[in-house]
Amino acid sequence: MIFSELYSAYYNAVAAILSRMLKGECTERELQSIVAERAFGESVLSILPSLKSGKWQLACPDMTTALEHTPTMPMTTLQKRWLKAISLDPRVKLFGVEFPSLDDVEPLFTEADYCVYDKYSDGDPFEDEGYIQRFRVILTAIRQKTPIKFEMINRKGRVVYGRCLPKRLEYSEKDDKFRLVTAGNGYIGTVNLSRMIHCAHYTGDKPLDSGEREMTYDTATVKLSDDRNALERFMLHFAHFEKQAERVDGKHYLIRIRYARDDEPEMVIRLLSFGPMIEVVGADSLKTRIIEKLKDQKKCGLK
Amino acid sequence: MSTYSELIKNFEKIRAYMREFYVYGFKSRDEYSAKSARSYDDERRRMESWLGDHMSFVRTPEGKNMFISIDSRSIRHNPFYHAWKAKSFTDGDITLHFILFDILHDPAVKRSISEILQEIDEKYLVGFEAPMLFDESTVRKKLKEYCEAGIVVAERSGRKLYYRRADSIDISELNDVLHYYAETAPCGVIGSFILDKTDADSDAFTFKHHYITGAMDSGVLAALFDAMREKRTVTVTNHSRRKDEAVENRIVPLRVFISVQSGRQHLIAYLPEYDHFQSYRLDYLSDVKQGDPTPRFDELREALDRMQGKMWGVSIRRNRWGKEQLEHVEFTVRVEDFEEHIVRRLEREKRIGTVERLDAHTYRFSAEVYDTSELIPWIRTFICRIVQMNFSNRAVENQFKADIEAMYRIYGIKEGEEI
């Protein structure tokens, strides 16, 4: 069962508090910060008082405990089953790690039990040896905060050389691709991993800027008419953005979505997919692009 | 009168609230009429406590509207997982939990129930003014619960039953794996539970186009996976938006269909009573009860495998005699010089069907599908270059063309207008 106190933030916070107590004298402030880190906004009002008052009989009022061992819990069958399921995923080879023995564990699911039916078909070659090797070099460099050098094929098909400080890997479930978010790579903020052909740790002495390129954001403002269940479809479709909606009247809504300017072309086609159920009223550049597309469509003479 | 707590006993209530606040977020307090004002205040306060800065509000003439707004590209962990970590428990539950695992601190330590009871009283609770009383049946029940969860093992030696903690698994190498899959794999919240027990954090991954709402359906999803693994029927409650009342159905769950473009998850199942296949929105399902194993599971899943070649999304259309009703979809786009990316888009975004090159500047997509209307949003993304279309379902084709005309009107584009 997923919804169980065994996984609760309170149990985790109490385990961390008891571990800290076992290490020796600790301050109230230290324990409060453990609660703040491990549990929720108001947890400090209940966890420490419950321990101190003896409501939970695990610690004395002086914040010592009769427990003798650092609290730990073995993995539940559910956790092992999930772990087994991901150990069967082809992408796991990217990480080059040995999974613990789970021979007697039934996976929670296999590839036959679910289907991601609308991801793009030109995802990264996760099982390609060269790709795996480059992925691992990058992951190590991110961990160690060290620079890399690489060769990649750019959009024009040319091989280009670059050096950068890799910051993180951004994975898109829709594209099924990893992009490397970099610093110190001139004006290029991200590099598609599948475009890289060579990658190694950089040991040269060229100084690299460690600041990530600042992302610029715009706001799409959309008027929506709730026909054909458009409101629910639209709000779910754009759920992963920062957004705000307000009802204008019975079935009309005004929705503002904050999006990265680099993603404007993608935003245009995503908005177009909602047809006449929406009207884009801002930003100007977004609206202009949509109008241009419609004018071009009109010239196609579709009857 | 009950007092407020951050913790909850029942996940279903908060599941509905979180969706409302996150997906829509424009309703005022008064509009949550189905629930009491007190209930609304408590749930809102819990969400604020769990989600902190992700909660916002706006003042409108109708009052203060609370909403959850998250750019999932900027976060490393799904904040909705917090809700799954808020299960309530009793004072006895938490006390007993830590004491039991302190007694059973190593897999080599084995104790009988009487030994455990004696240690609890004499070692752990003796220092308290009013020590809790744990009788044998309470401790036995808790140990049974832990054996079922797989964290305690019961072993018989002679006539006596001994308990020990289950063996630990070394996951020290799996930090990056767990961080990645906790966000991308089905039921990723379980990965998050595993990570909670480790101290290692990771800042190596972020996620784009990342729908985090599915987290709220993890309980239903896990129960359906259980049924599929064991080839069982289940009974589910379906709260479809098309019906006022929730409906209970006995179904054979066959496969979960996850969309990474719409944020929706569906279950395709077979309904034995009606002898047909149907898709269900996962967020409309609740209360999954496991039924009996069915010998037809493999045969039904093979049938679904065959049907998938004609499904654009999750719609399966058959007439009442079980005969497939297929529709032909075809549209042609114009591709200018240096627009090879459009051809690549057609190839990579099509899920079924074929793309044909008609000449240097025209390409045609065609497919036989159950439901033409499922392709419409995708076809609209090619607006600006659609030169011809031919749907066997004329009503959908006419609607598509009428919609384009409506868009011209919305944006004030008139006949013969120059760019």
What strand line-up does the widest sheet of chain B have? 10-9-8-7-11
Distance from first to last alpha carbon of chain B: 68 Å
CATH architecture of the largest domain in chain A: 2-Layer Sandwich
pLDDT averaged over residues of chain B: 92
Which spans of chain B have pLDDT < 50 for at least 5 consecutive residues? none
Number of helices of chain B: 13
Number of strands of chain A: 10
The CATH architecture category of the largest domain in chain B equals Roll
Biggest sheet architecture of chain A: 5 strands, antiparallel
How many beta strands in the DSSP annotation of chain B? Answer: 15
The number of domains of chain A is: 4
Q: Can you list the strand order of the major beta sheet of chain A? A: 5-4-3-2-6
What percent of residues of chain A adopt helix (DSSP H or I)? 25-40%
Outline the structure in words.
The complex is a heterodimer of chains A (about 300) and B (about 425). Chain A has four domains: about 1-70; about 75-115, no CATH class; about 130-200, SH3 type barrels; about 215-300, Alpha-Beta Plaits (2-Layer Sandwich), CATH 3.30.70. Helix content of chain A is about 30%, strand content about 25%. In chain A, helix 7 crosses helix 8. In chain A, strands 5-4-3-2-6 form a five-stranded antiparallel β-sheet, covered by helices on one side. Chain A has helices at about 10-20, 30-40, 45-50, 75-85, 130-145, 230-235, 265-270, 285-300; strands spanning about 115, 150-155, 160-170, 175-185, 190, 195-200, 215-225, 240-250, 250-260, 280. By secondary structure, chain A is of the alpha+beta class. The model of chain A has no long low-confidence stretch (mean pLDDT about 95). Chain B is an alpha+beta fold. Chain B is built from 13 helices and 15 strands. Chain B has helices at about 10-25, 35-50, 80-85, 90-105, 115-125, 135-150, 175-185, 190-195, 220-230, 295-305, 340-350, 375-380, 395-410, and strands at about 55-60, 65-70, 110, 150-155, 160-165, 205-210, 230-240, 245-260, 265-270, 275-280, 285-295, 325-335, 355-360, 360-370, 385-390. In chain B, the strands form four sheets. Chain B has a five-stranded antiparallel β-sheet with strand order 10-9-8-7-11. The model of chain B has no long low-confidence stretch (mean pLDDT about 90). Chains A and B meet through helix 1, helix 4, strand 1, helix 5 and strand 3 of A and helix 1, helix 2, strand 1, helix 4 and helix 7 of B. Strand 1 of chain A pairs parallel with strand 8 of chain B, so a sheet runs across the interface.
